[in-house]
Design goal:
The structure is a single chain. This protein is α/β, with parallel strands linked by helices and 250 residues long. The chain has one domain: 3-Layer(aba) Sandwich (Undecaprenyl pyrophosphate synthetase). A six-stranded parallel beta sheet has the order 3-4-2-1-5-6, with helices on both faces. Strand 3, helix 4 and strand 4 form a beta-alpha-beta unit. The chain binds 3-methylbut-3-enyl trihydrogen diphosphate (2 copies) and magnesium ion (MG).
Amino acid sequence: MSGGESKLLPRHVGIIMDGNGRWAKQRGLPRTEGHKAGVAVFERICEYAADLGVPALTFYAFSTENWVRSAEEVAGIMELFRCQLQKAHRRAAENEAKRWRIRYIGDLEPGGPVPADIIDLLRDMERKAMDKDRTVVNIAVNYGGRQEILRAARRLAVLAQSNAIAPAELCEQDLEDGLYTAGQPPLDLIIRPSGEQRLSNFMLWQSAYAELWFSDVLWPDFTEQHFDAALAAFVRRGRRFGATGEDEKG
Ligand code: IPE
Ligand code: IPE
Ligand code: MG
């Protein structure tokens, strides 16, 4: 794939970073080692996609359902977030990490299950990485699509209760305005490695017309070539959005 702006590039790519545990198991390593390897791949793919000029990316890092894992694994993942954020802060201080705008999405309210020091670090990181002209990188932590929609619905209920909005006049845009990704393009492409073919509660609203690309590769083995393959598949898809497809290419 060549770089630069292209009409053929998806406007927003979602990536479900799955398969870390199986990757570690294959090597006789603890699961946390798989997550560590996954973080390195996240950095590479983020860099690559931003260089290609993809306007928005969302990486699914930890779901609202992932808390059911062993305390040891959850603590290991939280520690990785912590280390990763501290590293990113050091880079930002050296003025290297301002190549994109970072947003953390998910239930990150103080008092919730995500440790408070991590919330402070990530909110601070959002303030440091604010280049609005570049790629937006959303990192989904304690994220669930249903939780996000419920949160947006609550916001509308509050507005309706205070008579700021009439229920009969509510439109899709009103709900969308309450999503974490408000103002961003809808997902054009979702990439899921690891062989699973499901969304696992990832961006249920934003994925309404997303093209889905699945691969058996485990996330720690995912490379730029896999990303290219997903983009190439995306270009070949005939998107119809409910129409007949008579104008469709190929
Ligand atoms: C994805 O890898 C990372 C998280 C969900 C936090 P997994 O840990 O789910 O890896 P597998 O699916 O067990 O291989
Ligand atoms: C989805 O992976 C969540 C993330 C990648 C963060 P899971 O491994 O949690 O999904 P399921 O349980 O296989 O559906
Ligand atoms: Mg998994």
